[in-house]
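Weekly puzzle thread! Below is a chain. First person to post its structure in token form gets bragging rights.
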Amino acid sequence: MAALTLEDAGIAPEPRGEGTRQRILDAAVRLFSEHGINGVSLRTITAEAGANSAAAHYHFGSKKGLLDAVFERHASAIATEREALLAECRESPGRPPVLEQIIAAFLEPGMRGSHGGTTFARLRGRMLAESNDQTRELYALHFNDSSGRFLDALSEALPDLPAHDLHWRFHVLLGAMVYTLANPGRIQILTDQACDPSDPDAALGYLVPMLAQMFRGDTIPQSTAPSASMHTLY
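Winning reply:
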């Protein structure tokens, strides 16, 4: 009896080189998250993946191309899930309150680590803390459109909140998310492990209602100082 092939079983065979490409991506997100973008070489990544530099150059062209591919792999999925959750908020408002739903829809996909696991979550936090031109370009490409739609949704949920208040409060939301991803250990040390932001359920359980209260707070008079423009919506 002839051996059963993948095609006979209805399973598509892996494209040539795709396994190597995925191993390089896995190694890259892990090493980038541990050492930073500038702290690891393409040669180190390919060695960790059990590949050679020629394979990395073939699939990605450069370390910048590799980082672009890492983001395309995971960040696009986060933005897509955010928008799907936002659509659900619009279809079934009420319980929990719409504002909490919107905030949770923005935070959960990235903070739960379902797209790339906690490794990509750490990488995002590290990149935001070490922001540079490439980071800003990647976030603009993958997140600006969806983040803008969340700003619109928040504005609809809070029609009496002036735009400058909304923007600053969204900025605080971004800061809470970034610091939770980038440095959860700091508050663990300060609280003798009583507060653990690395636990996504615990973090979201506090952040969502706390941020909702902030958004519902009294309007703050606009400062006479020049306002900072928001170049990137994370």
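Puzzle host: Confirmed. Bonus trivia for everyone else. The mean pLDDT is 83.
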